[in-house]
Amino acid sequence: MVLYTGKSILDIANQNNFAIPAFNISDWAMFLGVMDISEEKNAPVIIAIHPDEVSHVTTDLIVAIRERAHRSPVPVAIHWDHGGTYEQMIVAIQAGFTSVMIDASLLPFEENVALTRKVVEAAHAVGIQVEGELGTIGANDSYGESGAAEIIYTNVDDAVRFVAETGVDSLAIAIGTSHGLYPSDKNPELRHDLLEQIKAAVKIPLVLHGGSANPDAELARAVSLGINKINISSDIKVSYHNRMREILGTDERLREPNAIQPEPIAALKVTAAEKIDLFGAAGKADLY
Q1: 242 found inside a domain
Q2: Checking phi first, is residue 180 left (phi over 0); if not, alpha (psi -120 to 50) or beta?
Q3: Is 1 part of any domain?
Q4: I need a labelling partner for 74 at 20 to 30 A (CA). Which of 11, 31, 36, 57 fits?
């Protein structure tokens, strides 16, 4: 199947009221696990790679990811997650990403609009989708999940103006999530009322970041109210690396990846499958 842009893959989700998981991968084995389970579930998938992850795997890996995606029977988009600069977005486009996110949400509104619009103009010129962010999404830890110290909720009127002035194809909104895993004494709660208002006002695909550890019922309701892409990073990485730690602890002689990685990949797939089902994406590849 041909590679999809972020817009072409998300527009179908928007029209059919489901969400596509955007799984953050940071090595080849994780990527293969995500692809395998997406194909087993006949689900469209977005492969998301954060700048820190790009630094780790390098853009050279994108060539191989594109080749594997082209052989897949399910729709695949390759997404640069949380880009911070215009220059990063150009690198992403030239490297072969089919979707980019410019996150200027910590800048003043006018500066966010200006930078996002500049990225949109460059990306749209070559047929690439752009995700913007309005409002700030918090952070619960410092273990690879960046976010603001305090959540600033997305304002409905600002969202309408932002979409109109930037031309973004999808919008990440702040409705009460935080990046990373929640501490045991913190209970996340999504502002579903705010989500409804934003969706009614802008109508484009909406994106939820920082959804790890949110109750399943809250995420499912968010999907029913108009969320079309949900980023999943911490959850699959915890499953993958926790199982790897267990295996490595059983025999210090283990050293070959082909002996170590199959079970961590299987653990990742279990978690990813749960998200695919929860978001209503299973079987939806048939819509494309």
Answers
A1: yes
A2: left
A3: no
A4: 57
Q: How far is CA 193 from CA 202, 222, 260, in A?
A: 15, 10, 45
The tally of domains found in the chain comes to 1
Judge whether 225 lies within some domain: yes
Dump the DSSP string for 153-219. PPPHHHHHHHHHHH--SEEEE-SS-EESPPPTT------HHHHHHHHHHH-S-EEE---TT--HHHH
Residue 138 belongs to domain with CATH number: 3.20.20.70
How many angstroms separate the CA atoms of 88 and 229, rounded? 22
Mind telling me the catalytic residues?
81
Residue 43 has pLDDT above 50, yes or no: yes
The DSSP 8-state label assigned to residue 50 in this structure reads -
Q: What is the pLDDT of residues 150-162, one digit of tens each?
A: 667 899 999 999 9
24: containing domain: 6-287
Reported pTM: 0.93
What are 99's strand-pairing partners? 79, 129
Rounded to whole angstroms, the Cα distance separating 267 from 244 reads 9
89 within a domain of the structure (yes/no):
yes
Distance CA 12, CA 21 (A): 14
Query: Do 229 and 46 touch, CB atoms closer than 8 A?
Result: yes
77-121 pLDDT, tens digit per residue, is: 999 999 999 999 999 999 999 999 999 999 999 999 999 999 999
